[in-house]
Amino acid sequence: MSKAKKDEIEFINYAREKNAKYQLLELAIIAGNQPIGMIDLHSIDREDRQSEVGYWMVSKYQGKGNMTESLKH
Fold this sequence. Notes:
Structural class: alpha+beta
Number of helices: 2
Number of strands: 3
Strand content: 35-45%
Strand order of the largest sheet: 1-2-3
Radius of gyration: 14 Å
Largest sheet: 3 strands, antiparallel
Shape: flat
């Protein structure tokens, strides 16, 4: 198994564990039925009702307003 595939599996397992504990929410950004990026809420503080936002996007989709629109929803 390649390192990239191992990294992907490790990330998926990490995200699933954190999601199950309500510590992380991962959302995919889809365009043309293809994932082009992700947005996540992390450092979730349910008592204070706040979290931090993280995101990334495939470079060819950057600079076109896709992330701004995704964050609005």
